[in-house]
Amino acid sequence: MQSLGNKEVTLLRSLLNLFGASSSSVSLTDDRKRIDRELSRHRIAFDRVSAAELLRTHPPKIENAKKRLVFDIALANHPNAEVTVERFNEIPIPEAFQPYSPLTAVKASKGYFRYSVGDAHHCHMNFAYHDLFSGYGHFMFAQDEIQVAEHPLLASVRELMLARADRLRPSTVEDGAPTPIIIRSVPRTISIDTRQIYGARFARSGDRLIRDSINPIDSPQLSNILAIEAPISTGNRIYTRSEIEKALSTAFSGFRAFILGYTGSFTNPIVLHTSNWGCGAYGGNRQLMISIQIIAASLAGISEIVFYCGADPTDSIAEYELQLKSRFKFRPGVKLAKVVDRLVASAFPWGTPDGN
Fold first, then answer.
1. Under 8 Å CB-to-CB from 68, ≥6 apart: which residues?
2. pLDDT band at 261 (very low <50, low <70, confident <90, very high)
3. What predicted TM-score, i.e. pTM, was given to this entire model?
4. H helices within the chain, ranges in order?
5. Between β-strands 43-50 and 177-178, what pairing exists: parallel, antiparallel or unpaired?
6. Hey, what CATH topology would domain 6-345 get?
7. Which partner for 254 in 36, 99, 228, 340 could form a disulfide, CB atoms 3.0-4.6 Å apart?
């Protein structure tokens, strides 16, 4: 597809939004009774712990000397906070797109994750391996490990879950189905400039460069983290229907789970912060992975989804959203099976893992 200009994108977005808004006379709304019913069906484990107690009883276990350097800085002045940990089962995806009111707003941001907003209604994605936070103490340093390093209490959350005998275990997949994990009110104690130490470069970096890349946060803010496994290829060159359906189910289960466990007022918009889910080490297709997240957010009732584009152009997000409405016909009232049919027919190719 030829790239659209900014004016063309704006005009086409307005026309399609107008069309979409008029094609469904009934919109969904969330209220406490509706949420409580869904919560009782889908939350399979829950705990609330203090940060001080968690760090005392389940301290991080660091095997790599360079990671120890990072964690020593991150834990130097760790505040106390009450943290909740939840695990959900797979939440059935709707058969048709009945939108929430207002429709999900899709935004793009330059660069990488920012956590400047500490409000309870904001959520930041963790592109998890199925064994949650398993690389935090090793040499790896991609999105998952960076997020844990900036929120070091997440390492203790993993150790707590490993020590338990119930279903609050550190697994984002069980019996082949997604089991999203949400950790709320986690202090972020450092920010890391990853430009020179991201991925495999971390293990080759000197201690001084690592120290210079870390900025302690004087007044740590609290983050809400949603962990779902990024889609992994089953060995096909082109995405299969089952791969697309699994990715859509995983994203929807996680996004809806965050809303179900939210205890604030629904007058506040639920804002999801995300990026190129599974497009690095797993070689996912960027357009498909972004499109699936937009679909899942719209189905789940997310008020706003913000994509951090890294080095990629921000205009591509609006273009992908427009293609969802025009080419793939993702509009209020549409049967989801029809949208999946069109995604499958487009033969999205798997990419090449980036080695990180």
1. 62
2. very high
3. 0.90
4. 6-22, 32-42, 51-57, 65-74, 143-150, 153-163, 201-204, 207-212, 241-260, 286-300, 315-326, 336-345
5. unpaired
6. Leucine Aminopeptidase, subunit E; domain 1 (3.40.220)
7. 228
